[in-house]
Automatic annotation (TrEMBL):
Keywords: Acyltransferase, Transferase. InterPro entries: Acyl_CoA_acyltransferase (IPR016181), GNAT_dom (IPR000182). The keyword Amino-acid biosynthesis does not apply. Gene3D superfamilies: 3.40.630.30. Its EC number is 2.3.-.-. This is GNAT family N-acetyltransferase. It is an enzyme of class 2 (transferase). GO terms for molecular function: acyltransferase activity. Residues 16-180 form the N-acetyltransferase domain. It comes from Streptacidiphilus monticola.
Amino acid sequence: MTRTNEERTVVLGERVRLRPMEPSDAEALWRWNSDPEVMRWMSDGYRQTLARTVERFSQREPNRYEDVLYGVECLDDEMLVGLVRLHGAEPETGIAEIDVYIGEKQYWGRGLATDAMRTMCRYGFEQMRLHKITLTVVTENRSAHHVYSKLGFVEEGRLRQVFRRDGRWHDMYLMGLLEGELR
Ligand SMILES: CC(C)(COP(=O)(O)OP(=O)(O)OC[C@H]1O[C@@H](n2cnc3c(N)ncnc32)[C@H](O)[C@@H]1OP(=O)(O)O)[C@@H](O)C(=O)NCCC(=O)NCCS
């Protein structure tokens, strides 16, 4: 069955469409998580088989207020290129945490992470009535830090030696964005 763009759209940005992840997306996720360059500044845990990733993915709880995971699709060619996740939201506090990554490296530098973040933050503030969105980023992850700063996130703290990679400890910035600050 061919679906229209409207049916497939959950949240539309200028360059990306955010949509729920399908079980068939597990292979792409597994591939991204196996790429050391993509995972350079991300927590990767223990490697899992593709079969285990598929199984975990199919057992994932449905999207809900506390945990919204969307695939990032490039509007130009409808390719699934990464994901964005808004999690830990509580109606009592109106605070949630955001994660993003673009796993298809050939799509880096095309403004997709910026648009995916902006679109997801707008969704959080406007649809979910959030007051604040936070994130953490390794201080050396210059491109990610640049994207977040461009969107209006500000550094609120520096977590010393909380990320270990290649035998070295790295600091992380805690960053935050209040409603009304999104650029
Ligand atoms: C970081 C990441 C999300 C950026 O995605 P992207 O789609 O390439 O981002 P965009 O194209 O929207 O923007 C990248 C920006 O970083 C800038 N940039 C690239 N390398 C940079 C560097 N070394 N220092 C400073 N800025 C840099 C680009 O110039 C661009 O800014 P501009 O639009 O103002 O010119 C992507 O590279 C990624 O997923 N990396 C692996 C996973 C990861 O690190 N995720 C973040 C975890 S906190």
